Amino acid sequence: LQADRFDPDHAYVRQWVPEVDGPEYPQPVVDLAQSRRDALAAYDVVKAAKAAAN
Prior knowledge:
Number of domains: 1
Order of helices and strands: HHH
Distance between the termini: 39 Å
Number of helices: 3
InterPro entries: Crypto/Photolyase_FAD-like_sf
Strand content: under 5%
Largest sheet: none
Radius of gyration: 19 Å
Structural class: mainly alpha
Number of strands: 0
Shape: elongated
Protein name: Deoxyribodipyrimidine photolyase
Organism: Gnathostoma spinigerum
């Protein structure tokens, strides 16, 4: 992640989003790994349909 690379101690984020360290900070709404798998699967379907049409 870019934040881990450029702000490894997360000082910048804590400065501007202090609630990130607290219990009231919400959990992610979307599972990014699952969303990526879904998008790649949908892309494969479209790519296969296009190849079959040619």
